[in-house]
Amino acid sequence: MPLMAATTTTFYPLLPSLKQTSFSLNSWVSSCKPISSNPNHSLPISQFCRTHDVKASVAFNPSGNFDLSLHDDEEDASKVAPPMPPTEGRFEIVVDTDNIRRLDLSPVRSINGIKSLSEAEPKELLEHTIGFTINYTREDPYDPRELSEFPDIRLWFVRLDAYYPWLPVVLDWRAGELARYAAMLVPHQMNMRMGVVFNPEALELFVMKKVFIVYSWLKQQKVPKPKLKTSDMARMLGFGMGDELFDLIDAHPLDPS
């Protein structure tokens, strides 16, 4: 079964706003399978990541694991564990309305504790992780939209991602920062009951692009176990990466020049 036909990924906010960075993930459970010998039964992406035929409710666990249930009830959302607070000692990027409207990335060059993302040691970023505090003033205080629905906020994150495409791997996953980051960049709709509902094909392409970028960046920075770290990042968004993908990347490296 092709992955794009089976994957439906949904993040349910545990609290009313995306400013509260905790979500549950509802998707088909991802599992790595061998490459199919029949080209008519696989797509390029699905060759490296296949899915079970069992639909499950998947919730973020602070430890980075998943809490699986075979029951997909509306009541499941009320059973999700309370949200985790930000990781202690993480680096905080504080963004205000003025930064956003001017597409000003200076907050990433004045992070408390480090000079800038570009000059920080990868090991230090991975150990402490990074989070966002978004101080955005709505023109209409009664505007019900979530932060990820404001075009100017999303555009700021698009520019940020263009400069630091490896950023997702150093975010504070436990506090939901990876999920919020994805919501800023991936097309989605807001649902009264289910929260943020991603376009499944767009999310799949986003994850695959980040896998290519993050794996190469970790290797360049000589970070131990780059495959494991990259796979963990993809799994947090509901995708399981097969070793075949990493083997192909290693077999056909790109010239950095």
From TrEMBL:
Pfam families reported for this sequence: Crr6
Domain of life: Eukaryota
One GO cellular component term noted in the UniProt record for this chain: chloroplast
Endpoints of the signal sequence: none
GO biological process: NAD(P)H dehydrogenase complex assembly
InterPro entries listed in its UniProt record: CRR6
Classification via NCBIfam families: CRR6_slr1097
Listed name of the protein: Chlororespiratory reduction 6
Species annotation: Macleaya cordata (Five-seeded plume-poppy)
